[in-house]
Amino acid sequence: MRANTLIMIVLAGVFGVLAVVLANFWLASQRSAMADANGVQRDTVVVAAVALKFGDALTSDKLREIAWPVGAAPVGAFKTTKEALAGDAPRQALQSISANEPILATKITGPGQRATLSAVLGEGMKAVSIRVNDVLGVAGFVFPGDRVDVLLTRTTRGDDGADKSFVDVLLQSMKVLAVDQVADESKDSPTVVKSVTLEASTKDAQKLTLAAGAGQLSLALRQAAASKGETTERVTLSDLTGETPADVAARQAELDKKAAAEAEAAAERKRAEDKIAGLTQAVEKVGSRLDELGRAKPVPVAAPATKEVVKYVQPEPPARATVGVFRGVKLETYDVPRQQ
Q1: What is the mean pLDDT of the chain?
Q2: CA Rg, the chain, in Å?
Q3: What pLDDT is recorded for position 161?
Q4: Which of 23, 159, 229, 336 could serve as a FRET partner for 171 with CA atoms 20 to 30 Å apart?
Q5: Residue whose C-alpha is closest to residue 93's, from 40, 64, 50, 131
């Protein structure tokens, strides 16, 4: 038998034993986890036994109780079926509820209440309906629970007598409560409708009512997760051809002028800051130099060496001289002028 074959057989055996050991460890950990789970205290939560639609009445055969960890129940959940069905009259679903989904108080009506739009409105919100057609209503693809933007198209007459059309985004991220007279969020087939009911604040409801008579309203379907608004601009016919209307051009020129002024002011501030920074650095350098000079020890200055010079001065000869003459033994002296 070749050595390579023998090595492969040995390695296969080693990996096989290792796999068995790892599998035993995993099974042991799973059994331990199941044992720990069995020790957790359990409670009950009421869930839907079948899928419920908007307006479906809650009955005992449509609900059931399941085990749920203590302290982990959703807010507004019911512990028992009797608690969920308490009251003299049945409750109804305010939105679609899937099978095995917990029944929450916010998803059903109170005892004896009907599943109407007033029951699903948020606090302080109003329901406003606007008229649409197959095009303005996004071809029937708007359903209850969707979010839409409301666009307003108007035509006005300018100073020159010409009609000018433009479109503004009136409201953003408006929740759709119902299409026509259907408020069931489980509805999934597109249907051409004549009206759409939106949830709006009092001020937004006033805007919608006023805009309905001022121009034509249309809807723009938003992404399901996009709930934040965005910056929008008015669109005119000149935007389709690339021309800039006079008012927009004036506004843009004003904005450009303001931006240029702000840029110039920022540059001036930068120059002033640079000058101040330069002066500060110069003062710091001078201060540092003075500190260094103050800390330095004075160096003694040696006096310059002096050299003694001796100069011989020839004295002047006397103007007169004394002459002695012996006359015999007698000395006689005479003061006579000196010969130069």
Answers
A1: 78
A2: 54
A3: 72
A4: 159
A5: 50
Per-residue model confidence (pLDDT) at position 210: 92
Residue from 117, 122, 127, 142 nearest 199 by CA:
127
Q: How far apart are CA 314 and CA 232, in angstroms?
A: 118
Name the residue with tokens 């009136």: 170
Band (307; pLDDT cuts 50, 70, 90) = low
What six digits make up the tokens of 327?
């006359």
Q: Is 94 left (phi over 0), alpha (psi -120 to 50) or beta?
A: alpha
Q: Regarding predicted confidence, which is higher, 117 or 64?
A: 64
CA 167 to chain centre: 30
Whether 91 and 108 have beta carbons less than 8 Å apart is answered as: yes
What are the residues whose beta carbons fall under 8 Å from the beta carbon of 126, sequence distance 6 or more?
Answer: 199, 200, 201, 202, 205
First to last CA, the chain: 148
% of the chain at pLDDT higher than 90? 3
pLDDT higher than threshold 80 for residue 262? yes
* Ramachandran region, residue 156 (left: φ > 0; alpha: ψ -120 to 50; beta: rest): beta
Cα dihedral 102/107/109/111 (nearest 10): 20
Beta strands in the chain (DSSP E): 42-48, 63-69, 126-131, 147-157, 163-179, 195-200, 216-221, 235-236, 320-327, 330-337
Locate 89 and state its tokens: 């009259």
Is the pLDDT confidence value at 207 over 80?
yes
Interatomic CA distance for residues 197 and 53, integer angstroms: 19
Q: How many CB atoms lie within 10 A of CB 274?
A: 10
For residue 316, what are its two tokens?
A: 């002047």
